[in-house]
Amino acid sequence: MVKLIVFDKDGTLMELGSHIVKLADDLINEFSIRTNIHVPKSEIKNAFGIMDDKIDQVIGSKSTKSVVKSLKKLPNGDVMASWLLQKIEHLTSDNEAADITIIEGVEETLKQLHDRGYKLAIVSADDTASMDLFIDKYNLRTYFDLIVTSDSSEYHKPQKALLQEIMMHFKVDGADTMMVGDTEMDVELGRNGEAGKVVGVLSGSGDAQDLHNADIVLNTVAEMVEKLGL
């Protein structure tokens, strides 16, 4: 029986506004999976010129070459710079910055789950300051019993210990835990941490192929109550 539901944030609860923001989120996931080196999202976002989940105005004048140069300053950055070049060649440079907002139906779903007695947690590669901006903007703090960020835990996705640390906090077994996320790394976290159910959502970076190891794939978190019988 599900007692604890652990959510990713970006792409799961929050929309990824522009192509570049989405690409940055993809890059963060790729970096972690390929290198097993934890770099806070803020550092990678800074390599793109992203401030507070928006594209900094300077990005318009940056060439792909200068963005890649910034990226190479990160640990093992050469590998990810190469990956980025392959991705970015398919994008146009005139995409405007857009605010990242809560995904439709998420707030109502969180309230339903909270009111029905489920323990709710968020785990994100973002730092606490970025998390607080989102949580407080939409007054979601009352729904969450635990918020885990890159600077509040020594573990990071998709390490087994990260999810198990959360389960230990609640004294809940893996069989009673559900992991929900939009990327391959979120699914891998759920599997590594031995969550009883792993749910993929198509509202963020991942597609059906990325999420193929999930137990079920939904369009958004808003479908959880009805389709999972919660």
Please provide a written account of the structure.
With 230 residues, the chain is α/β, with parallel strands linked by helices. The chain folds into two domains: 4-15 and 100-228, Rossmann fold, CATH 3.40.50.1000; 19-88, no CATH class. It contains nine helices and eight strands. It has helices at residues 19-35, 41-48, 64-71, 77-88, 106-115, 128-137, 160-170, 184-192, 224-228; strands at 4-7, 50-51, 54-55, 119-123, 146-148, 177-181, 197-201, 216-218. The strands form two sheets. It has a six-stranded parallel beta sheet, with helices on both faces. Strand 6, helix 8 and strand 7 form a beta-alpha-beta unit. It is globular and about 50 Å long.
Notable traits:
230 residues; alpha/beta; Rossmann fold; 2 domains; 6-stranded parallel sheet; two-stranded antiparallel ribbon; 9 helices; 39% helix; 13% strand; globular
Question: What is this structure's SSE topology?
Answer:
Blueprint: E1 4-7, H1 19-35, H2 41-48, E2 50-51, E3 54-55, H3 64-71, H4 77-88, H5 106-115, E4 119-123, H6 128-137, E5 146-148, H7 160-170, E6 177-181, H8 184-192, E7 197-201, E8 216-218, H9 224-228
Parallel strand pairs: 1-4, 1-6, 4-5, 6-7, 7-8
Antiparallel strand pairs: 2-3
Helix pairs in contact: 1-2, 1-4, 3-4, 7-8
Short description:
This protein is α/β, with parallel strands linked by helices and 230 residues long. Helix content is 39%, strand content 13%.
Question: Which second-level CATH architecture of the largest domain applies?
Answer: 3-Layer(aba) Sandwich
Q: Estimate percent helicity.
A: 25-40%
CATH topology of the largest domain: Rossmann fold
CATH class of the largest domain: Alpha Beta
End-to-end distance: 10 Å
Number of strand elements: 8
**Number of alpha- plus pi-helical segments:** 9
Give the helix/strand class.
alpha/beta
Low-confidence spans: 50-63, 89-98
The total number of structural domains is: 2
User: What's the Cα radius of gyration?
Assistant: 17 Å
Query: What overall form do the CA principal axes indicate?
Result: globular
Order of H and E elements: EHHEEHHHEHEHEHEEH
CATH homologous superfamily of the largest domain? HAD superfamily/HAD-like
Biggest sheet, spatial arrangement of strands = 5-4-1-6-7-8
The major sheet is characterized as: 6 strands, parallel
Approximate strand percentage: 5-15%
If you average the pLDDT, what whole number results?
A: 79
